[in-house]
Amino acid sequence: MRPRNGRTCSNVCEERLIRIAAVHGQTLNASQLGKSLDISYKTVKSYLGYLEGAFLIRQLQPYFTNLKKRLVKSPKLYWRDSGLLHSLLNVQNEDNLLSAPWVGASWEGFIIEQVINALKLRDMTFWPYFLRTNDGYEIDLVLDFGKEKWAIEIKLTSAPDLSAIQKLNKAADLIDASRRILISRTTDNIDNGKVVSCNLEWFIKDLA
Asked: What is the mean pLDDT of residues 127-155?
């Protein structure tokens, strides 16, 4: 069966997957995505539900709390397999990846999956979210353990500066997070009890 414009169904499916891959790491606007895919809002929700049920994407829900701030209330969409994401976006090599404008979002999604999986392997019970306010406060990953919350910020840099920690602390104060963790590609891992700056390997070994 061919659509009226001559494209095969497999062509259309691939094109739609590529367009969904292009919004990796962004807050979901189903109506806007539907327009780019030439399908309805309801069909977009159905597609995403199928992809999520197949463990291909994660719709990271926003964290709601009683803040005197306006919060972003749409989920963020991440492809759970970075290799599949890079294939859909036609990444040929490491240089190609590192020069892409969305490389930070790719790294963010990769770290989120690794953190969640590492904690689940240790049978830790938690609920993952993100936090973003309309006035610029943001936490890439909020882990709610019930009795405590962790605020995790993710940076691609190998040399995070003090301002990144300060920004994380300000956002973490909004939800009274007991641990504030900045994960980057650093080789200088620091843990002062409440605030941690580390790489992924150190996090999995010492915190997860």
From this structure: 95
